[in-house]
Design a protein that fits this description.
Length: 244
């Protein structure tokens, strides 16, 4: 039996994000209007669909160009009044956001911890912006998936370097995480983790090489996201964590 898309907008989104939307769906499609903080989501890939569901979204991003793209997308989608862009860094949220602006119901931190100066500091800042019981959606690059991707692409030396968490010569510095690394960061930020899942177990490979039907790829991604051993070799990791 086919698996239904995870939200009203999921069928318009890349199959590689299907597992993330599946985790978010019980929160964002329940009918209430949430206060959402999207750290590093400047171009609006998640902010605009969430605003279309009726939520108010504040996006904090250091890039003025990304925030300009966000503004254009929000206006085109007719949700500009529910999307606000703020230029700044995630590790300085206490300065970037107004003092009376805390208490977000949901925060997104997707593909951010790989590039910040200190992931622990950034995650603590995000935790501090949540209301009690608020959730944070974390998505990061998976080290095991990166190792396999480089090996399959014919780059065994790079794969071996990534296996040892070493810098690959000639490539930008970007952290990769094992599940235990992500769980340790969550614990250090005073958050309670839910179960983790894989993001893009096969979607990147199938969409790039096979011409497979996107709906079929999405269904396969949803089936594999929480199943071992498949989730362990996904391109990314995702979990929802809760502030006490």
């Amino acid at each position: 039996m086919p698996i239904e898309p995870a939200s009203p907008t999921a069928e318009q989104l890349p199959a590689r994000t299907a597992a993330v939307w599946a985790a978010l769906d019980p929160l964002v499609s329940a009918g209430g209007h949430l206060r959402v903080l999207d750290v590093g989501g400047g171009s609006g890939m998640f902010a605009v669909p969430l605003a279309r569901l009726g939520h108010g979204v504040t996006v904090v991003d250091p890039s003025a160009d990304a925030l300009a793209t966000l503004h254009r997308r929000a206006e085109t989608a007719g949700v500009a009044e529910r999307v606000r862009g703020v230029q700044g860094d995630g590790d300085l949220l206490h300065e970037v956001l107004a003092a009376d602006e805390g208490g977000y119901d949901l925060a997104l931190c997707h593909s951010v911890l790989e590039v910040v100066d200190d992931p622990a500091v950034t995650l603590r800042e995000i935790s501090g912006a949540l209301c009690p019981g608020g959730r944070v959606s974390l998505a990061v690059a998976n080290r095991a998936g990166a190792v396999l991707a480089r090996a399959v692409a014919g780059h065994p030396v790079e794969a071996l370097a990534l296996l040892g968490d070493e810098r690959v010569p000639g490539r930008p510095v970007r952290r990769r995480f094992a599940p235990e690394d992500l769980l340790a960061l969550v614990d250090g930020a005073g958050l309670t983790p839910g179960s983790w899942r894989g993001v893009s177990v096969v979607a990147d490979l199938l969409e790039a090489a096979s011409g497979a039907d996107p709906a079929a790829v999405r269904n396969l991604e949803l089936a594999l996201a929480e199943a071992s051993p498949y989730r362990e070799v996904a391109a990314g990791l995702h979990l929802l964590a809760t502030r006490a």
